[in-house]
Amino acid sequence: MKLCVFQGTFNPIHNAHLKMADFVLKNYDFDKIVFIPAYRPPHKNYDTALTPHRMEMVKLATLVNPKFKVSDIEYQNERNSYTYLTILELYKKYDIEGKISFIIGTDAFKKIDTWYETDKLKNMLDFIVFVRENEPDKKKYEELKAKGYNFTFARMDFEDISSTNIRQSIKEGKNIDKYVTDKVKGYIKENGLYQN
Fold first, then answer.
1. Which end of the chain is more exposed for a tag (fewer CB within 10 A), N or C?
2. What are the strands, taking DSSP E only, across the chain?
């Protein structure tokens, strides 16, 4: 199986996430893309009360494509969501052809060499990097390439959508129709999320 992973806090999952995954499906040869909501993101402050809601919103959002799958692998362990440990488990769980690929934005990828067990992780993954700013820091990527990280840039037009801005818009009572799917919007409204 040719597998690509999209791991994130998804707080909440939004349309740019889905477009990135769709772009990868159309431009690379994968059998499925597995969305993995982080149970306890090690580098982010977040409201733990939202943990089950983040998972449910990812499940609702990914119904748009049968090749999108959702894994609760990090929820089963209820620990810090270290990518290295998750990828180890995925290799045990699936019969992987080649390496697992990993969708990531430039903002996170620039810090990849600080991640837990990064020297092991870099040998386990091929990274598909989405540019989140106008001009990538070429020197940093040259350094990462020299350190042995294998990556390609996904040439998709940048969409300026962030979960942080969506949460702020909800607090301010603004319309979020263009940022999330109808099902996710309905879930947020029904459960009164991000009001405070």
1. C
2. 3-8, 32-37, 68-70, 100-105, 125-130, 151-154
- Edge-first strand order for the sheet with 68-70 is 68-70, 32-37, 3-8, 100-105, 125-130, 151-154
How confident is the prediction along the chain (196 residues), in pLDDT tens digits per residue? 899 999 999 999 999 999 999 999 999 989 999 999 999 877 667 788 999 999 999 999 999 999 999 999 999 877 777 999 999 999 999 999 999 999 999 889 999 999 999 999 999 999 999 987 666 678 889 999 999 999 999 988 877 889 999 999 999 999 999 999 999 999 999 999 999 8
At residue 167, what is the residue type?
Answer: R
Residue with tokens 């820091």: 137
Q: Tell me the domain boundaries of the chain.
A: 3-101+137-191
